[in-house]
Structure formats: structure tokens, C-alpha cells
Amino acid sequence: MSGKKTPGTTTGNIKPSAGQDEKKINVPQDFDIDMEDPDTQRAAVAIQSQFRKFQKKKQDVKS
């Protein structure tokens, strides 16, 4: 057996959060998301906006 690691190989030192490993098992391998769809673009902008607000608030609390 060679020492070469394949993408599916686990080393045992990675510990996912509780419940996270179950979610990863049920995730489909292929995602068919239309990146040109206006609804997808609006959703991406909304998510980015909320994330930026969160980051700003987090930075203001540390200061």
C-alpha cells in the first residue's frame, strides 16, 4: 500500500462539529445552480450584504 492519500482519505485529526458529519453524508455531489438566473444573483447580493453587516458589527464590538 502506497503512502499516497486520495481525496476521500481521512487522517483522523479532523473533527467536525456535532451534527455536521451527518449533513455532509446527505449532500448531493452535483449542484445545478444557474448562476445567470436573476433570482440567484439577488440572493447572492442579499447574503453578501448580511455578511458584511455582520463583519462590521463584529469589528465594531472588538474596537
UniProtKB/TrEMBL annotation:
Record InterPro entries: Calmodulin_Regulator_PCP4-like
UniProt GO cellular component terms: cytoplasm
Example of a GO MF term: calcium ion binding
Annotated segments matching region Disordered: 1-35
Family label: Belongs to the PCP4 family.
Stated name of the protein: Purkinje cell protein 4
Annotated organism of origin: Fundulus heteroclitus
